[in-house]
Amino acid sequence: MKYRQIVEENKPHDVWDGEFEYELDVGDRKKALALSKVFRLLRKNAKELRKEAQEVIE
Fold this sequence. Notes:
- By secondary structure, this protein is α+β, with helices and mostly antiparallel strands.
- The protein contains 1 helix and 2 strands; from the N terminus they run ββα.
- The protein starts with 11 loop residues before the first strand and ends with a helix.
């Protein structure tokens, strides 16, 4: 999965997390990059939780 971002200032940013596409209205590149990192961490945490849940089920 890869991230796709439009980082033009003062325009909505599209962030792709592999499953959902978000349109983020952020004012600058630093905010867009920070938000993309947050989405990456959330996706990583979700994968770990699914794995733990699967182990409990088994």
